[in-house]
């Protein structure tokens, strides 16, 4: 299930973050707190059951002025024990719903070697528009910049989280 990320979830998020992104400066608790507090951000949580612990999280910013918004995905993460179960797709769907409500294109960066994430994004209409060399630090891994064009109507087959 997908619901709102809350301050009570953030310690668990830092644990997942440290496990998944140890080589690339995982976000500290203070980073999650700041992200959750920002008015232009929406953060969601994946849980196996209502009221259960967070097993994944995702966040998106809505930037710009009404009528000229852009969205930027800040993060999508699912703990290793639940990867491949559809939680990443459900989290992405929730973020895309935010963008679709304001008719905004969506931008993101993804490691060039993260084939599973790249495939998920491509299945959801994202295209590679550039490469950022040494984007992730301290590992020095490259990132693709990907974008999905703004949607003004719900596409056929779009699943709700």
How does this model look, in words?
- The protein is an alpha+beta fold.
- It has a domain at 2-110: 3-Layer(aba) Sandwich (Aminopeptidase), CATH 3.40.630.
- The chain is built from four helices and seven strands.
- It has helices spanning 10-20, 29-37, 87-101, 115-123, and strands spanning 2-4, 41-47, 54-63, 70-78, 106-111, 127-136, 141-148.
- A seven-stranded mixed sheet has the order 1-2-3-4-5-7-6, with helices on both faces.
- The model has no long low-confidence stretch (mean pLDDT 93).
Keywords:
161 residues; seven-stranded mixed β-sheet
Short structural description:
By secondary structure, this protein is α+β, with helices and mostly antiparallel strands. 27% of the residues lie in helices and 33% in strands.
Helix content: 25-40%
CATH hierarchy: architecture of the domain at 2-110:
3-Layer(aba) Sandwich
| Mean pLDDT across residues | 93
User: What Rg do the Cα atoms give?
Assistant: 15 Å
CATH topology of the domain at 2-110: Aminopeptidase
- Please trace the helix and strand order, writing H or E for each element: EHHEEEHEHEE
The CATH class of the domain at 2-110, by name, is Alpha Beta
CATH superfamily annotation of the domain at 2-110: Gcn5-related N-acetyltransferase (GNAT)
Shape: globular
- Measured by DSSP, the beta-strand proportion falls in 25-35%
Largest sheet: 7 strands, mixed
> How many angstroms does the end-to-end distance come to?
7 Å
GO cellular component, one term: ribosome
Pfam family, one: Acetyltransf_1
Domain N-acetyltransferase: 1-151
EC number: 2.3.1.266
